[in-house]
Specification:
It is built from two helices and four strands. The chain is of the alpha+beta class. The strands form two sheets. It has a two-stranded antiparallel ribbon with strand order 1-4. A two-stranded antiparallel ribbon has the order 2-3. Strand 2 and strand 3 form a beta hairpin. The protein is globular, with a radius of gyration of 13 Å. The structure holds iron/sulfur cluster. The site of iron/sulfur cluster has 16 residues, from helix 1 and strand 2.
């Protein structure tokens, strides 16, 4: 099994400021005070936070949160671009 190294990507243009992400995973996401748009605090959350980040991605009504394989992780299999 891989270590599951992933990174979080947010699309500020899609975000509607609903705030589910910051509520579910407050160590990973915050919201801008001015307009509520998502602020990504931890692009690469550790194993303690990742489940919450995944839940946030599922809950986001705008689908503005994606969880991708981390292409920058040292990869012994060499399949990173
Ligand atoms: S849950 Fe989605 S729409 Fe709501 S603040 Fe977070 S990224 Fe934006």
């Amino acid at each position: 099994m891989s270590g599951g190294a992933v990174r979080i990507v947010v699309d500020e243009h899609r975000c509607v400021g609903a705030g589910q992400c910051a509520w579910v995973a407050p160590k990973v996401f915050d919201q801008r005070a001015a307009d509520g748009v998502v602020v990504l605090l931890q692009p690469r959350p550790g194993p303690d936070e990742l489940p919450y980040a995944r839940e946030a991605a599922q809950l986001c009504p705008a689908r503005a949160i994606r969880i991708e394989d981390d292409p920058h992780e040292d990869d012994p299999h060499g399949d990173a671009p």
